[in-house]
């Protein structure tokens, strides 16, 4: 296990036409696993196993496998069997690296008291990989190798059947489409370039995939009926996710600037084949805006409900005040009529206070209720006007 080193070999920015000059590697840390410690896979032998941990929650595991000697010839020609076998092997190897080396790395990081300030140590579901890329080495000398290669990748479309024929003839070093790849062993430099481009493409796809998943969760929480959802927390999560998406876009532009033209074209070919722009990047941009609008609407709705609650409280206070004021005036008038010292400055009879004090309490209560009903009706009318 080692920290990824800085491979800078010259000034940044299109400094070399035939090699990558990234100012820093994309992976944060990488490691190798002893094949003897790899899990046992029926029919397959692990010859190499390594992993690379990237930012944005991406763990990439690479393994090299070969068939065990002495297998039945009919089984060796069964492309569907080996496709499924490699799929399961990839999942097991990825899970093995996650449960051993990655788990050990996280455990060591947790020993530092300030680790959470720099590293997101949330629990992740590492049981199943996002996908498994299956790359086959063409055995042009063995019997049935060409037919097996055709079955491995030629069931896609007519274009790739023609590419397989070119691969077998030696006109192209590899055929790579979706998850099933096949390449020639006699073109190592071209294969290595394509493999490195594939690693970059897988990183950008995986990282943007998790951004897309985060936006889906934010949107789902914002649509939930639960009143326990905190808009402040959702806005914080949306801001962090938007920053991750922006960082990925800037990082891809930086990679484009520093890698060789061939490497960039190969990476773009992979991303184009997977419809990266249509399926991930553009939907992420749209979901950011949708989440932002949804949270703004949710905040307005909650503010309106809060304002309604406040208005109801104030209206209740107002209704109570009307009744209390009327009763207080009646009581004051009656007390003043019984105590000449309180009404010595009155200019005569027939005042409002005297009239109110002469009414019965039931009449005062009815008048107060009628006035309160009028106030409530005016309040509801104005509230409906403000909401329409």
Oligomer state equals single chain
Give the strand tally: 7
Number of helices: 10
Estimated structural class: alpha+beta
Tell me the strand order in the biggest sheet. 1-2-3-4
The helix/strand order is EEEEHHEHHEEHHHHHH
Provide the helix percentage: 55-70%
- In one word, what is the shape? elongated
Protein name: CorA-like Mg2+ transporter protein
Transmembrane segments: 312-332, 363-381
Keywords: Membrane, Transmembrane, Transmembrane helix
What does this structure look like?
The protein has 388 residues and is of the alpha+beta class. Among the domains are: 33-130, no CATH class; 139-184, no CATH class; 300-387, no CATH class. The protein has ten helices and seven strands. It has helices spanning 73-76, 79-110, 145-153, 158-169, 188-223, 231-258, 261-273, 276-338, 352-358, 361-387, and strands at residues 2-3, 27-32, 44-54, 58-67, 134-137, 174-177, 180-183. The protein has a four-stranded antiparallel beta sheet. A hairpin with a 2-residue loop joins strand 6 (174-177) and strand 7 (180-183). The protein is elongated and about 125 Å long. The two termini are 64 Å apart. The chain crosses the membrane at residues 312-332, 363-381. Keywords: Membrane, Transmembrane, Transmembrane helix.
């Amino acid at each position: 296990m080692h920290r990824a080193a800085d491979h800078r070999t010259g000034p940044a920015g299109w400094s070399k036409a035939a090699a990558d000059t990234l100012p820093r590697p994309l992976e944060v840390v990488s490691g190798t696993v002893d094949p003897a410690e790899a899990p046992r896979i029926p029919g397959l032998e692990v010859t190499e196993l390594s992993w690379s941990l990237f930012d944005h929650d991406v763990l990439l595991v690479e393994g090299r496998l070969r068939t065990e000697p002495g297998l039945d010839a009919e089984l060796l020609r069964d492309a569907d069997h080996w496709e499924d076998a490699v799929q399961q092997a990839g999942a097991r190897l990825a899970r093995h690296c996650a449960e051993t080396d990655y788990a050990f790395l996280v455990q060591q990081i947790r020993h530092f008291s300030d680790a959470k300030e720099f590293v997101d140590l949330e629990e992740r579901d590492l049981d199943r990989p996002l996908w498994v890329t299956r790359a086959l080495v063409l055995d042009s000398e063995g019997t049935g190798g060409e037919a097996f290669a055709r079955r491995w990748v030629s069931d896609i479309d007519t274009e790739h059947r023609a590419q397989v024929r070119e691969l077998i003839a030696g006109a192209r070093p590899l055929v790579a489409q979706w998850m099933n790849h096949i390449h020639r062993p006699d073109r190592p430099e071209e294969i290595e370039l394509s493999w490195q481009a594939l690693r970059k493409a897988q990183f950008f796809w995986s990282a943007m995939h998790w951004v897309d998943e985060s936006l889906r969760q934010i949107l789902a929480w914002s649509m939930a009926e639960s009143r326990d959802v905190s808009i402040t927390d959702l806005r914080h999560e949306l801001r962090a996710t938007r920053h991750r998406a922006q960082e990925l876009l800037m990082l891809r532009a930086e990679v484009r600037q520093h890698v060789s033209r061939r490497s960039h074209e190969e990476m773009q070919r992979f991303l184009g084949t997977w419809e990266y722009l249509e399926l991930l990047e553009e939907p992420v941009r749209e979901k950011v805006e949708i989440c932002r609008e949804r949270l703004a609407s949710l905040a307005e709705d909650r503010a309106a409900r809060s304002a309604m609650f406040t208005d109801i409280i104030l209206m209740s206070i107002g209704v109570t005040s009307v009744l209390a004021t009327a009763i207080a005036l009646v009581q004051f008038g009656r007390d003043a009529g019984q105590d000449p010292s309180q009404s010595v400055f009155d200019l005569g009879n027939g005042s409002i206070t005297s009239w109110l004090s002469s009414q019965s309490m039931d009449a005062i209560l009815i008048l107060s209720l009628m006035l309160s009903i009028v106030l409530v009706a005016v309040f509801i009318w104005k509230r409906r006007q403000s909401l329409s």
